[in-house]
From TrEMBL:
Classification of source organism: Bacteria, Bacillati, Bacillota, Bacilli, Bacillales
Pfam families named in the record: DUF2922
Biological source species: Ornithinibacillus xuwenensis
Designated name of the protein: DUF2922 domain-containing protein
Length: 71
């Protein structure tokens, strides 16, 4: 499963990560940046360290799980 991770900095200077499951691919950096700007503008989320104040980064993460059959 792939996730889009949006990383922001809050007022305490800590990084806060929000994940979106199954992002549309290929991921458009301009669209992601605009969405992150809108989250900041709307003050959509608050954290224990205060409001979000800046974009840090975004990335797509893919997790692969392989079961091991025990003998």
């Amino acid at each position: 499963m792939k996730k889009l991770e949006l990383k922001f900095e809050n007022e305490d200077g800590k990084v806060v990560t929000y994940s979106v499951d199954n992002p549309i691919e290929p991921v458009d950096p301009a669209t992601v940046g605009s969405a992150m700007d809108e989250i900041l503008t709307q003050n959509a989320f608050t954290t224990s360290g205060g409001n979000l104040v800046a974009k840090k980064s975004a990335r797509v993460v893919e997790r692969i799980v392989q079961d091991i059959e025990l003998a």
